[in-house]
Predict the 3D structure of the following.
Amino acid sequence: ETILKISNLHKKYKNVHAVNNVSLEIHKGNVYGILGPNGSGKSTTLGIVLNVVNKTSGDFEWFDGKSSTHDALKKVGAIIERPNFYPYMTAGENLKLVCKIKDIPFTKINEKLELVGLLDRKDSKFKTFSLGMKQRLAIASALLNDPEILILDEPTNGLDPQGIRQIRDLINLIAQQGTTILLASHLLDEVEKVCSHVIVLRYGVTLYQGTVDGMLANE
Ligand code: ADP
Ligand code: ADP
């Protein structure tokens, strides 16, 4: 079952070929990494498939093209920037707001807070959370509608070692539950620890594509 198919994608900014002929197929149940140093085109690629950045050429298709990109994106959970929650509202209140906006039943709130290990902090104000807790709340929020795929851009940036471990454990748990995951990272050990498949980018060009085990064997 194909979740996303990217074919010969290009993105050119004025002076930069940010994405240079990237192709990628994402199948249900796997965890995919986009690995590359800063500026290699990871965020641009994610932005294009999420319809927030315009492509220059090439194509992408969600769910075998059975629905429009607009409808398909309702089945996608994505965290591509620092999530903006209301600091003086509690975790539970913030998620309630998301449920209202997206027409999701409130019953999902406890389920997702429990999944990310924040159920006991449901009534704490967002501003009291550590960065790691904020990120886990963002993941809970992105999962409220039980998306087919979770997309994360540099999910552990800025976190301390304990926060990094918690996020990586959480990603593995979400993957075990059957959610397909696509994550962008500049950290080899992050991709090693959570991904089964990887595309390695540099200056927008694909350097390697395949299993993580294959990449490590090729080094
Ligand atoms: P990554 O996510 O791997 O750090 P990006 O996709 O953010 O890489 O950036 C890829 C390249 O495109 C970089 O050289 C970056 O400077 C450039 N770039 C990204 N966004 C823009 C933009 N809006 N305008 C001009 N150049 C951009
Ligand atoms: P960036 O790398 O995008 O510049 P930083 O990690 O430097 O982001 O964080 C910028 C600000 O956003 C900091 O004040 C930080 O406390 C806040 N922040 C970071 N992560 C989150 C989050 N998940 N939710 C809310 N605020 C956050």
